[in-house]
Design brief:
This protein is mainly alpha-helical and 315 residues long. It folds into two domains: 14-106, Tyrosine recombinase, N-terminal domain (DNA polymerase, domain 1, Orthogonal Bundle), CATH 1.10.150.130; 122-293, hpI Integrase, Chain A, CATH 1.10.443. It has 13 helices and five strands. The strands form two sheets. A three-stranded antiparallel beta sheet has the order 1-2-3. Strands 4-5 form a two-stranded antiparallel ribbon. β1 (169-170) and β2 form a beta hairpin. The longest helix is centred in the first third of the chain and has 20 residues, at 76-95. 23% of the residues are buried. Mean pLDDT is 87; it is low at 5-10.
């Protein structure tokens, strides 16, 4: 008796490759990520239904999907998210040989939006500096207070902070020359009398420690008690986190202190050109991004300057 064979032909269409991709991702990704892929690829499938055949993916399919961003009025962040999900799927298809080339390779990328710079709340910064100043038990505390005073008052980059030399400090003219470790020109940072006061105390304490004349770094460390050495960017970051925990405030990075300089200064009505020069920006456009940060006190000032509220006052 001749056996009867039943052959099932699996139609490898768009749904097949989306499901295959999702099954693969279920093994390597978290459920929330898989759900994100499922949702985005579902949007893609819906968008191209009126353009058969829907397989294989084409440039026209991708353009149709991307066009829905404009129709829905999606934010830049969402557009980039959808783009990345589609790109991941297409790259996966290409990697495993299901398509020879990704259609997105023929199109411009959708860049991720650059987030606005963030600074810690002023009360957190003030509380941390107050905590350091009140403790003041050791030379480490004096160093940390001087260092974070300088960081906030000068907007020095973390690498520039670590590289500062004793000879670069001019207490009379209230300036510090920084030698950038990036493709920036050396520049002079100005500082206030408050910084000059704590720097004077720190330089005196540094001298009392008997640091070798050959070690010219302004900020020093005795990590693991193995002798004095330059205080590194990593060490500065660790001490910042140490004081944040002592103060009981949320953590922020050393670079956030640089952002704080710009944002706090703008709140205090500083000149944008002065901020640019202090931060070492090549273009005023880079500095101007800080003006987009919603500043504290805006609501209060609006109460005083609102055109509506002042209509009756001007009669």
């Amino acid at each position: 008796m001749t056996p009867n064979f039943v052959f099932v032909v699996v139609e490898q269409d768009l749904n097949y490759y989306i499901d295959l991709f999702l099954k693969f991702k279920q093994v390597t990704k978290k459920p929330a990520t898989v759900t994100w892929y499922r949702n985005v690829l579902g949007y893609y499938r819906d968008a191209i239904q009126q353009q058969p055949p829907t397989w294989p993916p084409t440039v026209t399919h991708c353009l149709t999907f991307l066009e829905t961003f404009k129709v829905k009025g999606l934010k830049d962040y969402s557009c980039n998210n959808y783009y990345r999900a589609l790109r991941s799927w297409l790259n996966w298809l290409k990697k495993f040989g299901y398509i020879s080339q990704s259609p997105l390779e023929f199109l411009d990328t959708i860049p991720a939006p650059k987030p606005l710079p963030k600074a810690p709340p002023e009360e957190d910064m003030s509380s941390m500096l107050f905590t350091i100043e009140q403790r003041g038990d050791s030379w480490h505390d004096i160093r940390d207070l001087a260092l974070f005073f300088v960081a906030l008052d000068t907007a020095a980059r973390p690498g520039e902070l670590a590289a500062m030399q004793v000879d670069d400090v001019d207490l009379i003219n209230r300036t510090i020359r920084v030698h950038s470790n990036k493709d920036y020109e050396d520049r002079e940072l100005v500082f206030t009398d408050d910084v000059a006061r704590i720097l004077t105390i720190w330089k005196k304490k540094r001298q009392e420690l008997g640091v070798s004349d050959e070690l010219r770094h302004l900020w020093i460390s005795d990590y693991q008690h193995k002798g004095f050495r330059p205080f590194t960017s990593s060490g500065i970051r660790q001490r910042l986190h140490f004081w944040q925990e002592k103060t009981g405030i949320d953590q922020f990075t050393t670079y956030a202190i640089r952002h704080a300089y710009a944002i706090y200064s703008l709140r205090n009505l500083a000149d944008l050109l002065d901020i640019r020069d202090q931060m070492g920006h090549a273009s005023i456009t880079t500095t101007a991004k800080y003006t987009k940060v919603v500043n504290q006190g805006r609501c209060k000032r609006h109460q005083e300057t609102s055109p509506l509220s002042n209509l009756n006052k001007n009669k």
